[in-house]
Each structure stands twice: as C-alpha cells, then as structure tokens.
Amino acid sequence: MPRYIERPEATLDDADTSIALPYGMDAAGVVKAVNDFYAYLHAINSAGISYGYARLEELLQRAAFSGLISEVMVRSLALSMETKVPGLARNLYPNGHPDLIPRAMYLGDSVQYGDQGVEVKAARNPASIQAHNTGSNWYCVVEFSCDLETQPVYEREPTIIRRVRIAYLLHEDWSFSGRGPTSRRTPTASITAAGREKLDKGLVYCRDGLTGYSLYLGR
Question: Which CATH code, of 1.10.860, 3.40.50, 2.60.40, 3.40.600, is assigned to 3-209?
Fold first, then answer.
C-alpha cells in the first residue's frame, strides 16, 4: 500500500486551549476539522488508487488543492459550532466573504461581502499568504505540507496539516500587489510581517511542537 495512504491524526495535545478564539470557536473544534480533512483525503485517495487513479494531490493544481483544504475545514468548523453561541455557519453565497459567518446574522446565512465572521485560508508557505479580499477581519490560516517530490510516487508522505493560526487582521496587515495594464491576473494582497506576528500569537494548533515561520520546510 502506498505511504501516502497512511492516515495522520491530530490530537488536542498539539493544541493551545488557552488562546481566546472568536464566535465561540475552540481548539477542540479546530482539531476535529483537521481530522475530518484527514478522513476525507484518506477516503478519496484509497478509492482512487483502487480504480487506478493518481492520488488527489497529483490530480489537482496547487491552488485547487489549497482550496479543497479550505472548503473541508470550513464545513467541519461550521458543523462543530452548531451548538455554540453565537456560533458560525458556512457562508452559502458563492465565493462569499468571509467563509464562516455568525449564524442567522445574514439572511439565509448568505452574504457576498460581510463584515463579521472568519475567512479560512490554506497555504503551503506561511510566509507568502495571499488573499483577494483584505478587509479587517478574523482569519484562520491552515498551513500544510504536501510531498510532491519523492520518487517513486508511492513512497510519498501523506499530506499533513502542520499549523492552524487564528487572528484578527487589519487592512494595513496586507500589502497590495497591483497588476500591469495588460495583465488579466486577479489583484492580490500578501500578508505583511506585522500580520504574520499576529497570526503567530494565534497559533492554536501545531503538529510536532513546531513553532515560528522560520521552520517552514518548503514541502
């Protein structure tokens, strides 16, 4: 059986339960969301290889895989907060911002641009977090490692959620990157050093006791 089929497990021992989180979020819900992602990826890849397909990490482009992680985390975090007060719900507006919004605050739990809630971002490189919507808001940044280099492919390690950080970022914690007059690239903004420091203080989950952006391994 390929190594990447191994299913990791997140535990509350790797979480910081002392960090104050918004909207009734807690470390246990974050750990559950990480394990839900592991379960989903394990099920998809196990079924895929049985039919002769490559694992999902090879089939999807990098941005698409990051989006998948974000979506699974959003859905799981929303489910874990069904009994919380005020609690968060998944934003049902297509590509709405933020991803998680206070339950019943917006009609039908749907809003294109809301000023309350939590935006969820997944990134391999925590030093280059980017976003298209950069207003002052709560952000949940999920850092993961994905082995795309080991050969042969069946020896590749399973994808790991390394850290989850939650912090309130201001508009000035983002550095806007414009585009040329002929470019069709979507304008994006990158997080500043000050923003990264805020996220470090909100390190709610950290696998293997890793801390700090300097420990990013590039995988």
Answer: 3.40.600
**Could you tell me if 166 and 202 are in contact, meaning their C-beta atoms sit under 8 angstroms apart?**
yes
Q: pTM above 0.90?
A: no
Domain-wise residue ranges, the chain: 3-209
Q: Mind listing the pLDDT tens digit of every residue in the chain (219 residues)?
A: 889 999 999 999 999 999 999 999 999 999 999 999 999 999 999 999 999 998 999 998 888 999 999 999 999 999 998 887 778 999 999 999 999 999 989 999 999 999 999 999 998 876 656 666 666 889 999 999 999 899 998 899 999 999 999 999 988 888 766 555 555 555 577 788 888 899 999 999 998 654 443 333 333
Strand runs labelled E in the chain: 88-90, 100-102, 118-123, 130-131, 137-145, 160-169, 174-177, 188-191, 203-206
Tally Cβ neighbours within 10 Å of residue 20: 9
Question: Please, are residues 88 and 78 in contact by the beta-carbon 8 Å criterion?
Answer: yes
